[in-house]
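Supplementary Note 3. Input sequence used for the single-chain structure prediction.
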Amino acid sequence: MPELIDLRSIDVDRTLAVIEANRDVICGVKVRASGVIVGGWGITPAKIAKRVAEIVNLPLMVHVGEPPPLIDEVFDILTEGDIVTHCFNGKKAGSIAVEICRPRGVPVIVDAASEYDLRGFLARGADIVIYSGHKFFSNPTSGIVAGRKDLVRAAYLQNKGIGRGMKVGKESIAGVMAALEAWEKRDHDGIRARETAALDLWAGTIGSLPVLSAEIEPDPTRNPLDRLKIVVSPESGFAATGLSKALAAGEPPIVVRDHEAELGFFFLDPCNLHPGEAEVVAEVLTRVMTAPRPESAMAEPRHGTARALRWPD
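The predicted structure, written as discrete structure tokens, is reproduced below.
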């Protein structure tokens, strides 16, 4: 979404007023700086954000992406205490972030979240990397902080500070330790082959059903996994959201990746399936597609808080 495409998108006076009215909770100024956001305006929105940050004496955080602007243009406007995020994303910006930061004494902190590779970021020079302990690891909710000892220690000390309310339980700590040991012994090639077999099974199932189409797509963040993109035609009697709801209401429920359902498609994800579950997904998909259409078949995505506020009614 080109949120900073021209000056009409920026209200400096209102931004300053909001910051002054909320000094107790606002700790910095954030701006996104990538081609899809700023268009041909380049570094200008980031420069405006930097000036706002200087006026209110707060640090600036710049969320970078594909140029323009170039990442070196971003670094040229930053001063001590400012932050650059999203530079380790497989794009050109990430490949030179360490090269730019290291001479300036700026630590490179990577929020790796659900990245598959546990060693690559540190090998490329990151100072500290933070991983989810539960996504690929299938562990209870937890996190892993790895890298420079002084920075890991600083994060650890927040157990007695701001992180106190977010600490994990002993069972999650034990779980993530076991998960790391299992990850080292994991048959990654064998699991990849089983995931591919699941995708092929689902693609074949879709191919036998009317007015649906499917294609296997690689993970956009370059993790070593693929997903099945299912495109839902209105002629099927379903909208993409309606079909995802019908699958979730099945027996057993099949929960899909429907965050882009308004575009007419969703994804089936083969990660962390147990033996026999790929076949269950195919059976439920066939059953839903050959059954009478439910009332919600043509449902569209509804973004908002109303549903959450009604829960659990």
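The beta strands are 29-33, 60-64, 83-85, 109-113, 128-132, 143-147, 212-218, 226-232, 265-268. The chain has a mean pLDDT of 88.
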